[in-house]
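Re: beginner question about structure tokens

> Can someone show what the tokenized structure looks like for a real chain? I only ever see the sequence side.

Sure, here's an example I had lying around. Input first:
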Amino acid sequence: MKGFILAGAVLFFIFAAGTGIYRLLYAPGFANKETVYLYIDRQIGFDKLCRLLTDSAGISRPDDFKLLARLLKYPENMKTGKYALTPGMSYPALLNQLRRGQQATTRLTFHNIRFLDDLAGRIAEQLMIGKEELLQWLNDPDYCRSLGFTTETIGALFIPDTYEVYWNITAENLLQRMKREYDAFWTEERKQKAADIHLTPVETAILASVVEEETAAADEYPVVAGLYLNRLRQGIPLQADPTIRFAVGDYALRRILFEHLAIESPYNTYKYAGLPPGLLRIPSARGIDGVLNHAKHHYLYMCAKEDLSGRHNFAVTLAEHNRNANRYHAELNRRNIRR
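And the corresponding structure tokens:
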């Protein structure tokens, strides 16, 4: 009888130990029904990660996870990154990802950006990079020069789109990645089109930024670009109102007054012929292609339409332009728009 009881106890112990080992190594360890992403930065320690697993993934046996993690020496070898915790994942499967730094990629998206400060903020919202850290690189004249830009033109490096990157990419590695994307965008065909209108890729981006600030209608990009190119070819100042708004620092100006036109700035294209020295915004691929594939016409003047739609009336002669401008200003007066 004693032997029977002893044998039973041994079997129970073996069964319990086997069940514990199976549970530790193979059983699903989380309650999440959908993939959960873990973002581990330099400030997240092991204890905080465990709390994160409890809050976001419903970890079922935290003590088992902590035991296995310590056996694998994970707490002292944590790696930053974005990691995918899929439904049904076991503790070893997750820890293997975390220890090896096997990250999920992040879709980095930026569109409709004016200022570098806004760009750095948009990127910082999506990646581990800090906004100020990125701005330090973008405001470094020597580094910008190493990429082929100035601090006024570095925005041209960024072609608005969606890119697959790792969440913990460094600022410098991101800028190098953007340089590769920039080089890929500027194909031989695009570079030849720019050369045909006597512009470099950076100058094309500057003009595209003026065009995009000039009109809210993307289908007008080629027409507006053609007009500015006509002026550049004839040595006529661009007289682009967006450059005045940029120089004044007020993009909301509806009326450009004589006091604005007198401002001393290299961006004042009423005073200085040629392109401004830098970007007014980060131009889109469509804006750049609008310049490269500009409409061929004889327009030299444009004025916002009197319906305030953001579209324009175009003119070949100054007399025709003045009639368009009179209609526009009359509508501003009717609506009591003073600035």
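Each token stands for a local structural state, so reading them left to right follows the chain. The mean pLDDT is 90.
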